[in-house]
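Q: Could you write out the predicted structure for this multi-component system? I'm mainly interested in how the pieces pack against one another.
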Amino acid sequence: MGARKKVLRLGATAGTTALISAALAGGTAHAQDADHCIESLDTGEKECFSEFETAISAAEERTGNTIAEQKRMMKSKQSSRAMTTAAANDIILGTFFIHEQYGGATFTLYGDSLCSKDGQMEYVYNFSGDWVDSISSVQPWANCWIWLYPEPDLGGDRDGPYKENTPYVGDYMNDRTESVGFS
Amino acid sequence: MRKRSWSALALSSATAGLVVLAAAPAAAAEPTNRQLLEQCNNGTDTCVFHPDGPPQYYTGPARQVGDSVYNCTNGVQRFNVSWSDTTSQSNSVGIAMTTEAGFGEAFAVSYEQSYEHTWKTSHTESQTTYVDTGPYQVGWVERQPRMERVSGTYEMHFGDPYYGHYIWYVPFEARGPASDGASEAIVQHNRDMTDAEKAACP
C-alpha cells in the first residue's frame, strides 16, 4: 500500500516520505468482504467496512474529535512538525467509487488539512490491490481538487481537475487510475 | 464527549483552531442536524451534498385514488373512475425543502449533476381508470407510487466557527417521486357490498 503525504508545505525531506511509505507497506491487508475503506493520508491508518454509511461515519469519527483531542493533536503536531502552519485536524478529502454514479466499493481518504490552493499537489496517494484500474466515479471533499493518473506516483497521463461530485470520470481515465493527487 | 459519527467536525487552520479552542470550551453544545441544514447556503462559505450511491427506487405504499364505485345492479358494470393523486418529497430531517434555496438547492444541484435529471419535489398523476364491477360489488382503484430515495452527507464549511467548528458533516436522506420514467402499479379491486351498502342502494 502506498499511502503517503506529499508534504510540500510542511517541508518534509525525501527521507521522511520514504520512511512513511515503508511503514505503510506493511499495513492492513485489503479486506475482500469489506468493500468500503477509509484511510488517513496523515498516518496511513486504514479500515474497511461492509457498508459505505459505516465507512463515512468512521471517517467522520476520525475527523471529529473532542476539543480535548484537538488540543492534543495540535500540540502533537506542533511539537513534531515545527513548520506546520495550516494543519489542525483531519478532514475528509475525497471518495472514490468502483462504479459509475457512486456505486459499488468505495475508498475514502482523509488528511490533516484543507488544500492550500497554491498550485502544488497537496496530497498523493497510490492505490493498490483491487483498487488499481478500478475507479469510475469520484467526489472531492473539502476544498481540494482531484487529479487521476494511470501510473503510480502521479505518473503517465493526467485527468482532472475534478472539482465537484463526478458520477463518471469519463472514458479517458475510467478504470485506469493507479494514483491520485489532491490540490 | 465524543462527537456522534454523523456530526463530526474539523478545523481549517491551526491559528483559527486555537482561537476556537480558547473561545469555545468543551461544554459547547452541538447543533442539531436541523439547525445545521438551516445554515446551508445561508451562513456557510460552502455547502455541498455528497450522494452515497445511485438513487434507490422502491414502491410506495398502496393507497386508494378516486372514489369507490357501487354496482347496485344484477349485472356487471363498467365504471370510469377519474382520479388525481400527488406524491411529495420528504426527508430524514423533517423540514420543508425547496430546491430554490438553502440545503434544498445544494441537494438539487448535486442530484442533477450526478444523475442528469431533475429532482422532483412532487408529482401529480391524473387518469381515468375503468373498473369492471360485479353485481352488488364495490370497486375502487389503488395506486402504488414509484418512489426514489437518495442519501448522502452534507459537507458544510463556515467562515467563522459555528458551535466551535469550521466544518460540519450532516447525514441526510430524501425521498420523492421517482424520476426514472418507469411505470407504476395501478390496480383495480372489488369486494362484495356489506348489508349496509346494499341497503343504501336506490
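A: Regarding packing and overall arrangement: The interface with chain A takes residues 1-3, 5-18, 21, 24-26, 28, 46, 48, 50-54, 110, 113-116, 151, 153, 155, 157, 164, 167, 169, 171 of chain B (CB under 8 Å).
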